[in-house]
Design brief:
This protein has eight helices and seven strands; from the N terminus they run H-E-H-E-H-E-H-E-H-E-H-E-H-H-E. With 261 residues, the chain is of the alpha/beta class. Helix 2 crosses helix 8 (231-238), helix 4 (76-90) packs parallel to helix 5 and helix 5 runs parallel beside helix 6.
Amino acid sequence: MSSAQYLDSLFNLNGKVAVVIGGTGELCGAMAEGLAGAGAEVVLVGRNEEKAKARLAKITDAGGKGYFVAAEASSKKAIEDLLATVLQRSGKVDIVVNGAGVNSATPYLEIPEDEFDRIMNINLKGVFLGCQIFGKYLVERGEGGSIINLGSMSGVIPLSRVFTYSASKAAVHNLSKNLAREWAEKNVRVNILVPGFFPAEQNRKVLTPDRIASIMGHTPMKRFGEANELVGATLLMASDAGKFITGAEIIVDGGYHAMTI
């Protein structure tokens, strides 16, 4: 076997079906492209069909395949219907990405209850439901699988100005590790992809000039991440290359977490 064939055997996702919840967003959309490029059939899940069409066009132009399913991440019925739709159309699910998320920069003493509930419902309850419904399927199927939950650097290190977001992501990290332990013997792996600072829809409102200067001063690579730079870590967690990796926080942040003084 040549080195190229060996690498292909590790990262190849041919015949796999990947459900990407939040796949109409910038970061998860790039992850979905990467999964499709490795051979998986990709299901983009979100609320914006126009964004999905644009991403699916890129995927098909590159020789990949996928389709869109509209669903609300925080609705149990919607996620149950999503699983049923994918099983009917694709026959199975092998990889699940739970990546729907929202953010806010409201000062802590001014955070209204409805904003807190909205962020928790999408960021935490969405992951809870995605893991519960798809995890039950994967565990009962008995053939293993990979769940990738989108965490955050604010789930590892407390960051200023994003109080509810940080709390929701810290809970996602904790839940993911507990599920990794729970399902390890079933070969259902649960890992956390931890992006550093990647400009995206949910955080543009908090990227003020002073905050950007602070981030750059704390990032050894002195730049923001680009969405396609999450693909390598995604493929590691989704493929046989990472078959002994579970409960891990895979950090992709240009060295942000390693910087102290």
